[in-house]
Amino acid sequence: MSEPGLDRFSLDGRVALVTGASRGIGEAIAVELAAAGASVAALARSEDDLDATVERIESAGGEAIACPADVTDEEEVTVAFDAAEALGPVDVLVNDAGTNPFFGDARDLDIETWERILSVNLTGAFRCAAAFGRRVGEREGTGAVVNVASVGGVVGLPYQTPYVASKHAMVGMTRTLAVEWAPEIRVNALAPGYVETAFTAGVRENDSIYEDLLDEIPQDRFADPEEVAGAAVYLASDAASYTTGEVHVVDGGYAAH
Ligand SMILES: NC(=O)c1ccc[n+]([C@@H]2O[C@H](COP(=O)([O-])OP(=O)(O)OC[C@H]3O[C@@H](n4cnc5c(N)ncnc54)[C@H](OP(=O)(O)O)[C@@H]3O)[C@@H](O)[C@H]2O)c1
């Protein structure tokens, strides 16, 4: 049992691999984990944007490296995990990489788009979780996974069927891996509501959709990415040492009614 205080939230000496770290919520999580003391391996496809995340962390006194990869590519993910280990064994995996190119009636959805969304949001996250789980197992270590799901992983969101299906499946994967990998690896999901990133630019630019959404959010606004990132630090840290298989919703009250 440790002393009361903020030390249990510290990630000093930990290594965290964050997918989707080139912008938006993943970038904010990478920066926040580094501020809490973790060395960060930043993974996404855009090398220039990853370099910017690394620079942000380093200029604040943290340690980070860029590990460019596409989460849909097994070989690239393996190379990225190997590269991340230059920082030390990876203790924390944040699965943030995601995509949502479809907004419309499910009857107009083509199967290629459905499969693309699931291959990034679900299979990509599983690929990284499995790589992480194998490596932690091989070294007989411990670790924590934070899967960035969505409020769309706990409630339905009209016109976003493949995205919501991928995030509900991610929640199922989270709960199952939590049971399977306990007690060595804790696995939790973080479920943001609507956040101001490139991801939601389309809905924010459409006045009527935007107003309708704000009517559904008790806090009457979208979140800043930083407002989501603190919960990832908590779930990755020893402050959450008895928390596994949980879905931590950060949504301004959206799913509360
Ligand atoms: N914004 C919201 O309102 C909201 C709400 C709930 C949940 N979320 C979830 O939060 C996560 C991040 O969303 P965001 O809003 O920050 O979106 P974003 O700004 O579009 O960022 C998405 C991130 O995922 C990376 N990515 C996409 N496809 C990838 C692939 N195939 N391989 C590797 N990286 C890939 C992108 O980097 P590259 O393009 O450089 O690869 C980028 O870093 C997603 O999982 C999303 O579902 C978002």
Q: How is the secondary structure organized here?
A:
Layout: E1 15-19, H1 24-35, E2 39-43, H2 47-59, E3 64-66, H3 74-84, E4 92-95, H4 111-138, E5 143-148, H5 161-181, E6 185-192, H6 201-205, H7 207-216, H8 226-236, E7 247-250
Parallel strand pairs: 1-2, 1-4, 2-3, 4-5, 5-6, 6-7
Helix pairs in contact: 1-8, 3-4, 4-5
Bound molecules: NADP nicotinamide-adenine-dinucleotide phosphate.
Written account of the structure:
By secondary structure, this protein is α/β, with parallel strands linked by helices. It is 43% helix and 14% strand. The protein has a seven-stranded parallel sheet, with helices on both faces. The model has no long low-confidence stretch (mean pLDDT 97). The chain binds NADP nicotinamide-adenine-dinucleotide phosphate (NAP).
Quick take:
By secondary structure, this protein is an alpha/beta fold. The chain is built from 8 helices and 7 strands, in the order βαβαβαβαβαβαααβ.
Task: Using brief descriptors, characterize the structure shown.
Rossmann fold; SDR_fam; 8 helices; KR_dom; 7 strands; oxidoreductase activity, acting on the CH-OH group of donors, NAD or NADP as acceptor; binds NADP nicotinamide-adenine-dinucleotide phosphate; seven-stranded parallel beta sheet; Short-chain dehydrogenase/reductase SDR
